[in-house]
Amino acid sequence: MTELAYDINTIMSILPHRYPFLLVDRVTALEPWGSLAAYKNVTFNEPHFQGHFPGQPVMPGVLIVESMGQAAALFIALSQKEAPDQAPEGVILPPLSGRVAFFAGFDKVKFRNPVLPGDRLDLGVTLLRLGSRVWKVAAQAQVGGRRAAEAEMTGVLS
Fold it and tell me: Which value, in Å, is the radius of gyration of the alpha carbons in the chain?
């Protein structure tokens, strides 16, 4: 995997999400059409910690899955940007500008360990299948080398 850092400005130029729903802070490595590494810094001042759970804050699982999904969308967009001619044979992706990626399905979702304020949530995405509008990735989230969550995720480009 190539050590390419994409900062928050690059991420915001690709994803339509904004605070409080932008859940990837930096992309740290990319192997176009292969895999991506990114992270999210989890902080106590995020609004969901006020109610999930008072006195014992835990990042909601659905937001962990969302962060993995955002990393997957970044993976597709950055792969197309960095290596447009290296997409798998027979796959022609339409221009991504002005388009939005949506979840189409989740398989094998598992939550292994809690994610707490102060943690760095490391995200990994590996390509399983790619079509012109639909893709499937294996995604994982870790904290300190311990698996927090994993899933196979299907996305579609609208």
Answer: 15
Domain count along the chain: 1
Task: Point out the residues that are catalytic.
Answer: 52
Q: Which CATH number fits the domain that encloses residue 47?
A: 3.10.129.10
* Tens digits of residue pLDDT in 50-100: 999 999 999 999 999 999 999 999 999 999 999 988 988 878 777 777 788
pTM over the 0.70 mark: yes
Which H helix or E strand runs over 64?
helix 61-82
User: Quick one: pLDDT at residue 11?
Assistant: 97
Burial class of residue 80 (count of CB atoms within 10 Å of its CB; 0-12, 13-18, 19+):
middle
* Closest-CA residue to 1 (of 87, 96, 125): 125
Does any domain span residue 27? yes
State yes or no: pLDDT of 4 exceeds 80.
no
CA-CA distance, 145 to 10, in Å (whole number)? Answer: 26
Q: Which residues contact 19 (CB under 8 A, 6 or more apart)?
A: none
Phi-psi region of 144 (alpha: psi -120 to 50; beta: other; left: phi over 0): left
CA distance 35 to 79: 9
User: What is the residue range of 80's domain?
Assistant: 8-157
